[in-house]
Amino acid sequence: MKIDNNYKLRDIAGECIVVNQGTEQVSMTRIISLNESARTLYEALQGKDFETEDVAKVLVDTYQISQEQALTDAAKWISGLQKCGIIE
């Protein structure tokens, strides 16, 4: 898996927003906002090929949570970004 390079993080009004910069016509009706942990993962993995285990490792290393919890959270993060078309 890989995060689509057309998507970029932007800070807008104190919120971390993901925007698609590869499209001329952007729909502002669909805004993707990331919380702190989602942003940490996005920044750590942007531009890299990764698997669920790689996402879990970032969570374990950053937040000192169990491997089991990290794998569950990693799968949710990946699923959410896939639904938005952010992960290739």
Q: Would you mind describing this structure in some detail?
A:
It is a single chain. The chain is of the alpha+beta class and 88 residues long. It has one domain. It is built from 3 helices and 3 strands, in the order E-E-E-H-H-H. A 3-stranded antiparallel sheet has the order 1-2-3.
Gross geometry: globular
What are the secondary-structure elements, in order, as H or E?
A: EEEHHH
Strand content bin: 15-25%
Major β-sheet profile: 3 strands, antiparallel
Quaternary state of the chains: single chain
- Average pLDDT metric: 91
Total strand count, please? 3
Q: Order of strands side by side in the largest beta sheet?
A: 1-2-3
Radius of gyration: 13 Å
Distance between the termini: 6 Å
Core attributes:
single chain; 88 residues; alpha+beta; three-stranded antiparallel β-sheet
Task: Give a topology summary.
Elements: E1 7-12, E2 15-20, E3 32-34, H1 36-45, H2 52-63, H3 67-83
Antiparallel strand pairs: 1-2, 2-3
Helix pairs in contact: 2-3
